[in-house]
Amino acid sequence: MQAILDALKSRLFATSSLTNVVGQRIYLDAGPANAALPLLVYRATNIDVQPYNTATRYVVDFAFTFYFGNSGTQDIHTATAALATALSTSTSPTGFDRCKFVLTSTGAPSFADDGWTIVVEYRAFAFDT
């Protein structure tokens, strides 16, 4: 599982259209208190590991939450499109043949606490080698 997280992190930081929007403010599980906006927090919400022939199949659900200030309504859509670009091709986690991401839910922007958020969910499929 750690290899999948590492490959995902590398992909997110390597996608310039994403880092052009959120910079290096991409965090696993939680961002720092009082962090500058915008930022992206991603986390695994469900992990299912199953034997599959001679390999093991990993199915991991991820939630990607973008946080923007109160003027971020246009950039929030740019950010979700950049995330789609980042996850449009397979990653190559160490010890796996590949990891493919499939969009499962596109959220709608929500305004609360003087800022905008949107949650986008993906499901990752990976087979160890």
Q: What does this protein structure show overall?
A:
The protein starts with a helix and ends with a strand. The radius of gyration is 15 Å and the shape is elongated. Strands 1, 2, 3, 4, 5 and 6 form a six-stranded mixed β-sheet that branches. The chain has helices spanning 2-14, 16-22, 73-86; strands at 26-28, 39-52, 55-69, 96-106, 110-112, 115-128. The mean pLDDT is 94. It is an alpha+beta fold and 129 residues long. A hairpin with a 2-residue loop joins β5 (110-112) and β6 (115-128). The protein has three helices and six strands; from the N terminus they run ααβββαβββ. The protein has a single domain (2-128), classed as STM4215-like (2-Layer Sandwich). Helix content is 26%, strand content 47%.
Defining traits:
single chain, 129 residues, alpha+beta, STM4215-like, six-stranded mixed beta sheet, 26% helix, 47% strand
Short overview:
The protein contains 3 helices and 6 strands. By secondary structure, it is α+β, with helices and mostly antiparallel strands.
| Spatial extent as radius of gyration | 15 Å
Number of domains: 1
From the coordinates shown, what is the CATH architecture? Answer: 2-Layer Sandwich
Global geometry: elongated
What's the CATH first level?
Alpha Beta
> How many distinct beta strands?
6
* Number of contiguous helices: 3
Structural class by secondary-structure content: alpha+beta
Strand content: over 45%
The main β sheet shows up as: 6 strands, mixed
Helical residue percent band: 25-40%
Q: Could you please say which CATH topology applies here?
A: STM4215-like
Terminus-to-terminus distance = 13 Å
Low-pLDDT parts are: none
Order of helices and strands: HHEEEHEEE
